[in-house]
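Practice problem 4.
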């Protein structure tokens, strides 16, 4: 199997339903982000209902889009 075969095999397509996260879902994701940040020294953030998250300002923050 060559590299392109592997890439095609690993390819996935996701579809999103466009519903907002529930408070419980956002809370669970935020807790997991805090754990990852603590363990890795990174500064990931979850931005919910924040239109500015999609405006390029020259700085690209780590954003989880859900």
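Answer key:
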């Amino acid at each position: 199997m060559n590299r392109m075969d592997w890439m095609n095999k690993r390819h996935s397509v996701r579809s999103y339903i466009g519903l907002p996260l529930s408070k419980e879902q956002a809370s669970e994701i935020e807790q997991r982000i805090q754990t990852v940040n603590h363990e890795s020294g990174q500064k990931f953030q979850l931005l919910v209902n924040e239109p500015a998250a999609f405006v390029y300002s020259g700085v690209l923050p780590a954003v989880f889009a859900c």
